[in-house]
Amino acid sequence: MAADVQPAPPFGDRLASAVRRRESAIVVGLDPDPARLWPGGSPLPGDLAPADAAAAAVADHCRRVLDAVAPACVAVKLQSASFERLGAPGQEALAATVAHAGDLDLLVLLDAKRGDIDVSAASYANAAYGSTATPWGPVAGTGADAVTVAPYMGRDSLRPFVTLAADRGAGTFVLVRTSNPGAADLQELLLADGEPVWAHVARMVAEIGAEPTSAAPGATLDAVGAVVGATAPERIARLRELMPRTPFLLPGVGAQGGRVEDLAPAFAPGPGGALITASRSIVGAGAAAGGDPAAAALRAAEALRATAAAL
Q: Catalytic site residues (predicted)?
């Protein structure tokens, strides 16, 4: 590393600082469906190919959502597949959305749920965070500050993300106890020690987060986080015991039935210890209540922020 190049601050510190600075633990989720975008978007040229037109409309929608709710949020969670399904133009829409989020001082979490080993895992990590290993020089990734990953294939499927993220000052959120109803099919199964699968995964996440390759001396929070569904609040206290320094990403609030009021143990580490993520309940607030979608989305995000701040 050149003498004048400073290493990036560790993700845990960046996250805690962002939560303090923006006075918010709310993450707006964007999983744009070209058939269900906010009305009133910018006019599109009439000669665009279908994929280009869909991607341009998605990018415009995402920009308007972020402009509306940024004052109440600390980050945006971008559902990778919602952009990937539009092909190359979708990747351009993703890049534009990441750049706009940065302009608004929002962290970007890429919800990709990657899970593979060896070369494939490293390739996925490079796609998310960028690569410096090509013969032609550095290649930019998505620009995300963190990415979600699946632990089913074990520690060696996680370490390429964790290691590369640490070099970039980025984070990795591991699926631990998810918010979907089918989570119980595997994650609640009891192991030989009498504890569920999610408890074993939680210990693994805490151990990896404490390893020298990912831990930052003096940091309050680890760079390795956990996705913990808000729809199973009875698990939160135990998960926090198992992962005392781990940032929690808490999906499932709003449309899936989770309640912020039930998540207080997740916030124990202080600023950045827990992030509330909501998608449909924020972006779709206008459709549910009527009126201007931007104003309705901001009201919904502000209400979540106020509730989380009171915990």
A: 113 (proton donor)
